[in-house]
Amino acid sequence: MDYVIEFIPQIARGLNITISVLIASALFAYIMAFFSGLCRLSNNVIVRKFTGFYVEIFRGTSLIVQLFWLYYAIPMLFGIQLGSNWWVGVFAIGLNYGAYLSEVVRTSILSVAQGQYEAATALNMSRFQRMRIVIFPQAVRMMLPEFGNYTIQILKGTSLVSLIAMSDILYYGDILRGSYQQQTPIIYGIVLVLYFILALPLIWLTKKGEKIAKKGVAS
Amino acid sequence: MDFTYWSWDTFLEALPFVLQGLGITIGLTFSCFVFALVFGFVWTFLQRIQNKYIKAVVTFIMEFIRSTPPLVQLFFIYYALPVLPVIGVTLHPFVCAVIGLGVHFSTYIGEIYRSGIESVDKGQWEAATALNYSTKDKWLRIILPQAFPPTIPMLGNYFIIMFKEVPLASTISVGGILFMARTFGSEHWAYLEPITIVGILFLLLSYPSALLIKKLEKKINHRFNTSVMTKNTNA
Amino acid sequence: MSEPIVQFKNVHKSFGDVEVLKGIDLDISPSEKVAIIGPSGSGKTTIIRMLMTLEKITSGDIIVDGQNLWKMEKNGSMVEANQKHLRSIRGDIGMVFQHFNLFPHMTILENCMTAPIHVKKEEKTEVRKRSIQMLERVGLGDKLDNYPNQLSGGQKQRVAMARALVMRPKVMLFDEVTSALDPELVGEVLEVIRDIAKNDDMAMILVTHEMDFALDIADKVVFLDEGVIAESGSASQVIEHSQNERLQSFLSRFRN
């Protein structure tokens, strides 16, 4: 028990990295999701193919591979140091889950009933108004549960930044393990519980999103 | 863009080296998948126990495993398990990876089984009872044959998802393609080429598999619907 | 007789290789109430869907208030209409659907207000007043803040009519508006249509299976059969004096 009390503050030092990477990469993923999800519905073939390429590349390979690739490739290919590994982590996680979520955006928009398009047309809305006033608000409601689920995935994904020397909670756990080998179960136990506590609000929001989604679609 | 760091010589040198890990990566994927398929049954079974305390505990454990990083779970099994008093054992890294990733994904697989069982129409249970089937026959002859086919595409998707999570095992020195790439990198101080190879290998393997599963899904949906239809016309 | 508000001139429509409409000619005057009847699959709904621009025309012309709907002039020649052209004309047309198509994420008051505000850029307080009046008229003044999924089918359809009426169309289209309703809810919807027919001077085109009702309120009945207008005229002409055998057998199925 003494060890638990001793270890918690040590490991918790990593919380600001874990949480800041979570928030930044989630926001980045959401932006990528809407941007590329809408691009894939574009009438322009080039735009569609190009974003399709991005989505397939990032969905077809692993997050950990993408993370290492960006970690080594960005400084080399572009001759820039991104400033810190923090950005590499946010970039990799955001691009990866942005690709998955763009499919959620795309399929949600496509699943809004045809009758809604027709009613909007009958009320003489323009294409843009139809999207903004009628289709999009309904599609967003349908997206909520999946956005919740993927945000939990993003939280889990943030643990990978410890592999590129970012001092998140897993990183501090690994450091502690070096000096307290016999207490390793306690150390990783604490790390797991911390992740779970961080996940709890996301689980709650996901459940809430499921309710909203259920209520919002039936006409 | 500055491509001067890129060397085709390094690329060609790294290729056979990285490919040595391919067998492990694929083998680990299959092992994890089979483990998750089997262990998924355990969750589904536990969830069906009609005791609210057991149910709550099982649900909590599943939720805990599902919402914490598989990477940390791997570390737990690899580093913490050996020093646990009494039950502590040191396992081969490959076995650690099979258990760690297998258990993690078994919680998802268990949900798939559950949704499959719940998708079977309530009338089927009642009909089986009305025909006086035993519990065993009810499951084996009536429920499972209907519950299983619709889950196949979902299970297939999880196979691909697991394939993409398997390189996590490189962190506990399981010698898959990512591990080989990083080993090559540290020996030659050239990471870009070997990791690019890993990315390409993943694309080459996962994209066709995804297409295959889509095809499978269509086929199963088709067969399932037609069988439902014939049932209706016969009724 | 005044200038027709809607004219169909030799309108054809094909879906793939199947020709559904084989040359429709039909004039509708302002304030005329037209019922289109006929067996299912005869293309009734397609006629009004083309007028609402939900379905492209294959050949022929539809003229709305003197303007060609599906064609526009460009550099001296007639070309296929673009979205802007369609929008400039279809503002005169309103439509009520078989499956209501209310916007589920808006209250019923918002359902009525959104198009006048965003499409016609009308002033909000005025639109609000008019929407409430219209909802009261269809008997839903006490449900303004309810969402569509809290209403019965008949109530939903009445909201849909109010929503279309608030736009003040010159032509209202009714696409089998009672077909998706439970039998006991049909009456309340027909009552509202009867009220509109009696008190509003817009033109109405009804596609319907409610034969007695259609014959009762329609100035003109059009019998569509196998893609052509097989019979058209006043209700009494069509019903009592038609020699068309298919029409007689069609009608006999609805009257006992």
Fold and architecture overview:
The complex is a heterotrimer of chains A (219), B (235) and C (256). Chain A has helices at 2-12, 15-39, 45-60, 63-78, 85-111, 114-122, 127-158, 169-179, 184-217. Chain A has 219 residues and is mainly alpha-helical. Chain A has one domain (2-217): Orthogonal Bundle (MetI-like fold). In chain A, helix 1 (2-12) crosses helix 8. The longest helix of chain A has 34 residues, at 184-217. Chain A is flat, with a radius of gyration of 21 Å. The mean pLDDT of chain A is 91. Chain B has 235 residues and is an all-alpha fold. Chain B has a domain at 30-176: MetI-like (MetI-like fold). Helices cover 77% and strands 0% of the residues of chain B. Chain B has helices at residues 8-19, 22-47, 52-66, 70-80, 93-118, 122-130, 135-147, 152-165, 177-188, 192-234. Residues 226-235 of chain B have low confidence and may be disordered. By secondary structure, chain C is an alpha/beta fold. Chain C has a domain at 93-168. Chain C contains nine helices and twelve strands. In chain C, helix 3 packs parallel to helix 5 and helix 4 (124-137) packs across helix 5. The radius of gyration of chain C is 19 Å and the shape is globular. Chain C starts with 5 loop residues before the first strand and ends with a helix. Chains A and B meet through helix 3, helix 4, helix 7, helix 8 and helix 9 of A and helix 3, helix 4, helix 9 and helix 10 of B.
